Amino acid sequence: MAHSSRPRLLVLTSTFPRWADDTEPAFVLELTRRLADRFQVHVLAPHAPGAASLENLAGLTVHRFRYAPEGWQTLTYEGGILARLQARPGRLALVPLFLLAEAWAIRRLLRRHRFAAIHSHWIIPQTLALRLATLGMRNPPPAICTSHGGDLFGLQGRFLAAVKRWALRRCTGLTVVSRAMVPAARTLAPHLEPRIIPMGTDLRDTFTPAPQIPRDPHRILFVGRLVEKKGVHTLLNAVARLLPRYPQLHLDLVGQGPDEATLRARSESPDLAGKVSFLGGIPHHRLPDHYRRAAVTVFPSTDQEGFGLVLVEAMGCGCPVIVSDLPAIQDIAPNDTFALRAPPGDADALAQALEQTLQNPAQAQQRAKKALGHVRERFGWENVSKEYGELLIKMAANEPRGK
Questions:
Q1: Who is most buried in 207, 228, 303, 359, counting CB within 10 A?
Q2: What are phi and psi of 325, to 5 degrees?
Q3: Could you say which residues form the signal peptide (predicted)?
Q4: Residue 403 placed within a domain
């Protein structure tokens, strides 16, 4: 489609790569670049030290707004807003500056360009900033909000619920990334019927099995942010319980976040010393090497999640997995056919699931093979981006504008 004939789409997000080969989660980038054949895409994301204020990244025009002097821009990235606020509550002072700066940047872009639609990721802060930006504006573009879970489940209380309801009044459509989110979404936005469209991943070229690479039968893998809700403390305790019987075990932790210092201190205890490696953030394209070599990847989250995208990536690489028994996991691993489960926060049960996997590698590989077929059918970017693209095109062409 010719560039000039494509309608413009504005994407709002607070999670986005800061530069090429950044280790920040790239799912918004990956979805959005696959919409570029239908739209001229502009992305608005927070600025960070070292990032460009305006650039072309993967064919997208990326704008980054500043909300504080560069050295003070510490609210986003490397763990996410909620985790960074929990790590340093003093950062709460940055929140109103962030919202006002984002709202101002949105309003400026809406005045500069004619957008056919807006795709806002997360209710707070993006959709709230959008509502602020369009106050008093005549005929703003229709907008869809995608809630990823943390904004829905992690911001509780009467006041914040009222703020989220007010923000969502601006939207024409609402999507959630798992069935477990639907009841809460309906409560917040009774005027919208939430549609379930997950995030996707590249299961055709990137996250694929490599049977020629041998798995290390003693290597356990975790991939994710090093924040409390990811349950890494539970995983460390489970591994410590197994080491007396399986002294060759080794745990690799891929990711970064505000809990890293605490986790390092735990890993240096006598029952774990020398058995845990902190690999830091790893570029997205290098993650398959780790999934392909591990005996098992563990996802020990301890609270409500929106959607476990890294779980899909591990399954796409044919890696056996163990998950916490949470509602959001049902969409990806609806039963024990695809993954073993353990109650959130239960180190003993997690150790038992790990031992079952390590003792029965053939059974684990059978589960992994079935899981691979399941995720390829549902969570490849080809299907996911098609659903989002059709929804946005329809909304831009036919749907009434938000209030």
A1: 207
A2: -85, 85
A3: none
A4: no
Tell me the residue range of the domain where 147 lies: 3-200+381-398
How many independent structural domains does the chain possess? Answer: 2
Length of the chain as a residue count:
403
327 assigned to some structural domain: yes
Instruction: Note whether 259 and 195 are same-domain residues.
Output: no
User: 250 vs 280, 341, 360, CA distance in Å?
Assistant: 16, 21, 18
Per-residue pLDDT of the chain (403 residues; tens, 9 = 90+): 455 578 999 999 999 999 988 989 899 999 999 999 999 999 999 999 999 999 999 999 999 999 999 999 999 998 788 888 888 999 999 999 999 999 999 999 999 999 999 999 999 999 999 999 999 998 999 999 999 988 888 778 899 999 999 999 989 999 999 898 999 999 999 999 999 999 999 999 999 999 999 999 999 999 998 988 899 999 999 999 999 999 999 999 999 988 999 999 999 999 999 999 999 999 888 999 999 999 999 999 987 665 688 999 999 999 999 999 988 788 888 878 899 999 999 999 999 999 999 999 999 999 999 999 999 988 999 999 999 999 999 988 864 444 4
Furthest-apart CA atoms within the chain: distance in Å: 68
Q: How many of the other CB atoms lie within 10 Å of CB of 69?
A: 7
User: Do 189 and 248 have their domain in common?
Assistant: no
Q: Is 227 left (phi over 0), alpha (psi -120 to 50) or beta?
A: beta
Do residue 237 and residue 316 come from a single domain? yes
Does residue 213 fall inside a structural domain? no
Q: Cα(317)–Cα(332) distance, rounded to whole angstroms? A: 15
Please tell me what DSSP assigns to residue 59: T
Q: Do residues 40 and 176 share a domain?
A: yes
Say what the pLDDT of residue 399 is.
47
Cis before 140 (ω within 30): no
Cα–chain center distance at 272? 29
Instruction: Return all residues near 242 (Cβ < 8 A) that are at least 6 apart.
Output: 249, 351, 354, 355, 358
Which residues have C-beta within 8 Å of that of residue 374, sequence separation ≥ 6?
Answer: 315, 338
Q: What are the C-alpha distances in Å from 222 to residues 277, 297, 312, 315? A: 10, 6, 13, 13
Asked if residue 289 and residue 390 are part of one domain, the reply reads: no
